[in-house]
Amino acid sequence: MTQLVSESRIFGTLPQGNILEISFRGTHECSHGGEMNRYIREKLEEHAPAAIVFNLLDYQYVWGNDVGVLFWASIVHRNPKEIRPVCILAKGTTYTSLYNLSKDSKLIDVFKIEFASTEELALERLRERLGNRSV
Question: For the chain, what is the domain count?
């Protein structure tokens, strides 16, 4: 069994609020979905961010829909019709697998999820979604 390491930090600040980065490290296992869900909900409650970056650069994911929380986190609970910008930072098989899951299931369209391979690109995409050019 592989341990899931979870961390968070404020990634940037915009007039609309903070961009929260949530990082996961480890190799995907079925139990990680529940752990991710709990951690993400706790951090969303704590920070109420304007946008989220999920940093999966050190997370190995190949298959499994238990990571759906990465997409559902875009729903703002106080206003379920509002979609919070989310960018998934990933490379290699993690990127390919998550991108294909989101595209095939239409989650990428419904939740307007962005993908990036660098922190700079993730920040740029979220700024564009929020209508800002500087942090």
Answer: 1
Separation of alpha carbons 36 and 69, rounded Å: 7
User: Can you tell me the distance from the alpha carbon of 37 to that of 22, in angstroms, rounded to the nearest whole number?
Assistant: 12
Residue 134 belongs to some domain of the structure: no
Distance CA 79, CA 120 (A): 29
pLDDT tens readout for residues 87-125: 999 999 888 888 887 777 777 777 788 899 999 999 998
CB count in 10 Å sphere of residue 60: 14
